[in-house]
């Protein structure tokens, strides 16, 4: 057994993890939304917006009214 054989297995796992993360990210793409409000909800539900960003965008959407 040489050094390369020992390093190949962990590299394999790294590649699998990277592929899995890429696939997961592609699944969280924004589906088509009919309205801006629906799109904001989708972004928030998918984790693309933080709670603070979501609140700021809602404030903009409703014209600054709470």
TrEMBL record:
Keywords: Membrane, Transmembrane, Transmembrane helix. The chain crosses the membrane at residues 6-22. This is SHOCT domain-containing protein. It comes from Candidatus Fimimonas merdipullorum.
